[in-house]
Amino acid sequence: MKSDLDFVLGVYLDSLVKAAKVNIVTGEFQFVKEMESERKAGVLDITTMDDYPKMIVKNGWIHPDDEQDYLYHMRLSYLREKLREKDTRRVVHSFRRVMGEGYAWITVCVALPADFTEDDPWVSYTWRIADNDSRALEDALCMLSGIFHKILKVNLTTDTYEAIKVYKEELKKELGYSASIAEWLYQFAMTGNVHSDDLQDYLSFTSVKKLRAYFRENREQIRLRYRRRLGSGFRWVMMTLLPSVEYADDNQIIMLYIRDIHDEYVEEQEHRRQLEYYCNYDSLTGLKNRYYYANACERFEKRSSRPATAAMFADINGLKYINDNYGHEAGDDHIRRFGKMLLDDFGADLACRVSGDEFVVVLEDVTEAEAAARYADFHAKLSKDPLPLAAIGFAWSETPRSISELVSAAEAVMYEDKKDCYFRSPENARYFEGRYKPNLE
Asked: Which domains does the chain have, with CATH numbers?
C-alpha cells in the first residue's frame, strides 16, 4: 500500500503536463515527467535547458504570438536573475502550447527548493494546464499584448524591470539593451531609435530620477507621444506609465506600455490640417477667409506696438447681375478670376475674402509710398479690362489703431472708384445692360 506521501506525490504528478529538475547554473536537466511527443521528436536529446525552449519553438508547438515572450522568459540568464531577487522563490510564466488538436494555456513554474544553495543550484520546473481563472487572465493579457508592442514591469527603486513583451531586436546591446531600465531607456534613444525632434522630450520623460519624484506625489498615469525608429523609418508611438497594484513609496513598481499610434495619429493630423485649412481659407479662391481676417484684426489691436500699415478694400463689379443672368457658376468663375489676381500680386497670407464679393489686403511695415505704388500697379492691371473685375480703394496710416479703421477708410475710396466705373464711363455701364459675357472657360 502506498504511503500518504507517495499518494499525494502521485496525484500531484498526474496534474502536471511535465516536470523536471534543472541546474539553474549549468542548464543540466532531468525530467521527472515527460511528454511522449517531445521524446519522439528528439527534443529531450539536447544537453541543456537553454536549448530546450528553442527546440520547442522549432517544432512549432508554441503559439506564434507567444514565441518571443516564451523564449525571453525561459532563458536561464533571465531566470537566474529573477530568482536572485530578494524574497523571490519562484518565477511563473504562461503561454499557449499545442495540446492535441489545438492550443492550450500552459503555466510553467520555476521554483527554488527549500535546500537550494549556490553549491547545489538545482531548481524545479513544472508545467501544468492553466486553470479557468488563469486562462481568462492570460486571454486578457494576450489582448493587451496585441495592442501594445512593449510591456515592462519597472521597479524604479531598484532600477530594474521585467519584460512582459518586447521586440526581439531591442534585446541587442548595440541598440542600448541593458539590465538597468534607466540605462536601457537612455541608450535606446541615444543609438538613433528616437526621432531627433522628439529626443529631448523623450529623455526628460523617461528620466528615472524624475519618475521617482513624480510618482511619490501622484498616482495618475502619464503619457508621451514620440517617433521611434522601426525598420528604415519612424513611426508615432505612445508611451504610458502608471503605478502597479504593487506600488509603494519604498518599492516604486510601475507599468510601462508602448503602442503604435502612427496610422491613427497621422490620420488625425491630416483631419486637423484640413479643418484648420477650412477654418482659415476660402475654398473658392484659396485666399484667407473672414474668420482668419477677424482673428488677425483682434491680434493686431492687442499688440503693444503697431507698424505703419496699409489696407486695400476691393468689391467685385457686377456680381449680382452675373449671378441673376448667367447663374452662380458664372459668378463663382468671376470671383475665382479676381482671387487669382490677388494671389498673384499679394499672396494668400496678405489677401482675404471677407464676404461674397468683398476682399481685403493688409500690408504691414510699409511706407506710404511703397503701399501707394503697389495699389497703383494693381489698379492699373484691373483698368486694362474695359469693365474692371473689381473696384478698389486704399488707405495707409503710420500709427494705425486698428485694421478695421484702415479698411473702413479704404472702403470709402473704393466707392469712389466704383462710381467712376459705373457712372462716369457710360460704355462700362452698357456691359450690364446685356452686353457683358462672362468667361466660362
From this structure: 1-131 (3.30.450.20), 148-279 (3.30.450.20), 281-433 (3.30.70.270)
